[in-house]
Amino acid sequence: MINLMSDTVTRPTPSMLKAMMSAEVGDDVFKEDPSINHLQEKVADLFGMEDALFCPSGTMTNQIAIQVQTGRLDEMICEQSSHVYRSETGGYAANAGIGVKLLHGTNGKITADQIAKDINPDYDWVPRSSLVVLENTCNFGGGSYYRKEEIQPITDLCKEKGLALHLDGARIFNALTASGDTARDMGQLFDSISVCLSKGLGAPVGSLLVGSRELVKQARRVRKVRGGGMRQAGFLAAAGTYALDNHLDRLQEDHDRAKILGEQLAKKSFIENIRPIHTNILIFDVKAPMTAATYLEDLKSKGILAVAFGPQTVRFVTHLDITEDQFQELVRVL
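Above: the chain's sequence. Below: its structure in token form.
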């Protein structure tokens, strides 16, 4: 099957598996796993930040970042389609005990002007605005991305108003590939960043929370109580290190392929519209009486898997597990 459901379906390459099998490991709860320590130092240095913490998932790194940078009865501000709101099971309320204020952005992106209008005044009867969360790239926004110059006014506003700023960087390297910005550019703009290795980079498991030394110290305690102290997890960290060393340069190929698929779909009379293609995510609507479900069944019968994003809406995601032969077959079928 040609799997376009997500870039989370990627599997370790033979070379990555070899790196994992030869990893040196120890007990990470005691900070004695050399492979994890190396990865944490590598990612912290990459973003120009003081420290990093390896976790099983991006949901965990996001949830830890929210909890350590807010207090109960506080409120975070984010875009209404953001992952921390729509796809993390209300963790901001369950874990941190905070509320959420949703802004309606453009393709998942919000601006400093929008945020400024929705920072709560210091009244007893409203939550304290304490955290802003951005997503880069924006999943439900069709893989749209922020550039450094778009984030800088938000950073300045948060500093002026005393709010922390967190980046859900689930696909941060796709964003950097498209924008031409650097990881250090991002590190200068945020108090914390969640960096995912298990999507476009192809590692099987793992995200890192990057920030100040004090923030990461607090984060380690929260990770422990969430069951995220994984002991000899250096085998997984070795996959992340391999991904950073070998899979960054090929991300542009995924972006180019998404655009080619969009060009093929644009020729079809049953396509209602195609959202702007920014990176490796392609979202489109089919015309009634066809539905997303019937279209996906037709694709599946031809060996292609994808997901519905609504009654008429379908999402494709390109990634490194799709070989050149598979891609040519995919183009032919479409």
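Residues 250-333 form a domain with the Aspartate Aminotransferase, domain 1 fold (CATH 3.90.1150.10).
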